[in-house]
Amino acid sequence: MAIAELSPSYPRARVHPSSLSSRFSNPLLSRCRFVPLRPSRPNGVLCSIAPNQIQVPVAPPADSAGKKECFGVFCTTYDLKAEEKTKSWKSLINIAVSGAAGMISNHLLFKLASGEVFGSDQPIALKLLGSERSFQALEGVAMELEDSLYPLLREVSIGIDPYEVFQDVEWALLIGAKPRGPGMERADLLDINGQIFAEQGKALNAVASRNAKVLVVGNPCNTNALICMKNAPNIPAKNFHALTRLDENRAKCQLALKAGVFYDKVSNVTIWGNHSTTQVPDFLNAKIDGRPAKEVINDIKWLEEEFTNIIQNRGGVLIKKWGRSSAASTAVSMVDAIKSLITPTPEGDWFSSGVYTNGNPYGIAEDIVFSMPCRSQVCDFCVLLDLLLRFSFSYLLWRNYFSPYFREMVTMS
Ligand SMILES: NC(=O)c1ccc[n+]([C@@H]2O[C@H](COP(=O)([O-])OP(=O)(O)OC[C@H]3O[C@@H](n4cnc5c(N)ncnc54)[C@H](O)[C@@H]3O)[C@@H](O)[C@H]2O)c1
């Protein structure tokens, strides 16, 4: 028997757990949010219900496979009359992660939920997309997330239909794909994974935010990003990125090792081309402690013959040693890539990302996704508006709701 206690002045309801067996199949509960642990009250789900939707919910039967989309703490009773005081003025960011039950996600999701990526005052909702085969594992992932008691993690949902999972997402981190095994090149995955990214592109086009940022990780990521972008014409092409930040990080590490410095001294490293063995890690423009890398290292033979080869084959060597492709360092590089997109790039530096080539200043063929140096910058108008609004009440609205739309402007260096 499902119960909803309704307050006429405040459209929130106390919902009995028996009505929560599936939050997606129950329209009344379609806006439930995970409420994090507080000492004074139990964790639970907060639901906003529009007055014209008020009715007693009926517990829906579990579907034929007996699957549920919410778990334990994400489904339990919560006193919805209690005032929900958010600790922050920032509005929730909806983040979709595909391949959420995979190795890379296993590292990434916890970084996202901890606030390491979008900031310690930024609440997030995680929408996890898996494949039919990985659905049970996806439930396991959600269980680990609830056990972690992240205060910024306000909502978790799981599913295997991209049209449901991508609804209103502002970020789509597309990891889910068949990974490369020993002896395989990334291009071998093209047929299998191309279809996945065409379908996901269509889904993003139909239901995601019009300004969604899409970071494609599943290989071959450049081609997959292009396929995804072509299937999502409603989303600006500049919002699509293929992850080459791992290669940049690997190149920075090798240059630092060779120069005998810590890697925070290495800057201006570009990965040109694809995330594959054909990529070109650029040591000519790289800097170590502000000086050209080739002057500091002073071993042009190593730079020309060994360095490039090491970076091109680092992933393959790792797979041979470990029997699977890199996961933790990939998740770290995704964090770096996202931060680079939402933070203005320091003067004189740049970062690498696979971007759509139309209009590029380097003479690279048009209509492909190719890694090149990029910068994020705030538009001049936004800097001015920021200054003007700083001392008014509207500043909070501007900073938390509107300025993110202007901040993430990426231009090629
Ligand atoms: N760009 C890079 O720098 C980089 C680095 C490392 C790995 N990768 C690529 O990332 C991808 C994932 O790697 P991983 O180690 O996490 O693999 P994994 O096998 O551990 O996880 C992949 C997950 O994706 C799921 N999946 C498969 N098809 C799906 C679909 N259509 N929709 C949603 N989920 C789906 C699988 O069930 C699995 O759980 C691989 O393609 C790998 O080659 C890219």
Quick overview of this protein structure:
Keywords: Oxidoreductase. This protein has twelve helices and 18 strands.
Topology, please?
Elements: E1 4-6, E2 13-15, E3 33-35, E4 44-46, H1 72-75, E5 93-98, H2 103-114, E6 124-129, H3 135-147, E7 153-159, H4 162-165, E8 171-174, H5 190-207, E9 213-216, H6 221-230, E10 240-242, H7 245-259, E11 266-267, E12 270-272, E13 280-282, E14 287-288, E15 291-292, H8 293-297, H9 300-322, H10 328-342, E16 351-356, E17 369-377, H11 380-389, H12 394-407, E18 409-412
Parallel strand pairs: 5-6, 5-8, 6-7, 8-9, 9-10
Antiparallel strand pairs: 1-2, 3-4, 11-14, 12-13, 14-15, 16-17, 17-18
This protein binds nicotinamide-adenine-dinucleotide.
Nicotinamide-adenine-dinucleotide binds at residues 98-99, 101-104, 129-131, 133-134, 175-177, 179-180, 196, 217-219, 221, 243, 246, 275, 325-327, 330.
Describe it:
This protein is α/β, with parallel strands linked by helices. It contains 12 helices and 18 strands. It has helices at residues 72-75, 103-114, 135-147, 162-165, 190-207, 221-230, 245-259, 293-297, 300-322, 328-342, 380-389, 394-407; strands spanning 4-6, 13-15, 33-35, 44-46, 93-98, 124-129, 153-159, 171-174, 213-216, 240-242, 266-267, 270-272, 280-282, 287-288, 291-292, 351-356, 369-377, 409-412. Strands 7-6-5-8-9-10 form a 6-stranded parallel sheet, sandwiched between helices. It has a 3-stranded antiparallel sheet with strand order 11-14-15. Strand 8, helix 5 (190-207) and strand 9 (213-216) form a beta-alpha-beta unit. Helix 2 packs across helix 10 (328-342) and helix 7 packs across helix 9. The radius of gyration is 23 Å and the shape is globular. Residues 1-68 and 77-83 have low confidence and may be disordered. The structure holds nicotinamide-adenine-dinucleotide.
